Amino acid sequence: MSKPVAPVQEQAAEPKAKSSEPTAKLAASWYIALRASTLGKKPVELKLFGQPLVAWRDQAGRPVIMERHCAHLGASLADGKVVDGCIQP
């Protein structure tokens, strides 16, 4: 009998840092990623603590930041466009 295979997301997931590790506290804190004046409706790529991210403003003008690469296609969302406040590859 074969073992069930874990979903790809679980296989690729990195182990979470223990709360006593410095990186766990670092990631749980607030940091300035970029100046508010540089953030508009077009996606802006950035890297924060080695993590590739993308930022933009939603329909209400609120800043949004997330992983840069599309989970479905692997495409860089920084090369995408914002439609109705949502980012598309």
Automatic annotation (TrEMBL):
GO terms for molecular function: 2 iron, 2 sulfur cluster binding; metal ion binding; oxidoreductase activity. This is Rieske domain-containing protein. Residues 1-23 are annotated as: Disordered. Keywords: 2Fe-2S, Iron, Iron-sulfur, Metal-binding, Oxidoreductase. Pfam families: Rieske. Gene3D superfamilies: Rieske [2Fe-2S] iron-sulphur domain. It comes from the Bacteria. Residues 30-89 form the Rieske domain.
